[in-house]
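Q&A log
Question type: sequence-to-structure
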Amino acid sequence: MTSDRVVQVAVSRGVATLTLDSPTNRNALSRALRAQLRDALAAALADDAVRVIVLDHTGRVFCSGMDLAEAAGGGAQDQGVREFPDLLESIWSSPKPVVAVVRGPARAGGVGLLAACDVVVAAESATFAFSEVRLGLVPAVISAVVLPRMVPHMAHRLMLTGKVFDAATAAVGGLVDLVVPDADVDGELRAQLIELTAGAPAALAETKRLLRAGAPPLQFGDLLELSADFFASDEGQEGIAAFREKRPAHWVPTD
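Response status: OK
Response body:
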């Protein structure tokens, strides 16, 4: 394990576990994390010995979304959001089942990351939020994978308010598949892996293709432009600055 690695990879008994390992910035989607996760996914998909992929994390937070320190002060062409669709597409279209293990908070792009997976196991203490609007941003790119999963009226309310919601609400809304006590997360993960690896590889791949064929195509083009433009906008940069400075953004009423 080296200090420049922010995604750890372990392969055992047909399971590739990709662990987000950047707890100092709450596993934010930094350039390094995005690149390493993309490469780890590609390697797992190319390895015939890998039957199932697990997306796990170290630290308290699953993923806090885009790295706002990197996004501050940049133009639309500089935003990491432009690389994010490829990452979501790799997970969404993977012929191998992908399981997300959410042991703590997931925010914004982190919610998109888990929504692209096939099975999401969450601890009871995990929390979620589409925090974009509170930062002057739009959950555009992640909507491509979130909306096929979620109950529409709940997605509307939670995306528009940006409020934090718990794992039980996430399950009712379709974002999470299984919610278990914190101490039982590893046991539930093992149970899911036993079930998934019992399937034949080609049959699993074709079944997933059929399941994804029933969902709308991921139209990332316009969504990407919308998201990148808001990251670079005056509102977006003000929201990012306010978040980093731990103050209300200028549009928040003070009376």
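Response note: Strands lie at 7-12, 15-20, 52-57, 98-102, 106-107, 119-123, 127-129, 165-166, 178-180.
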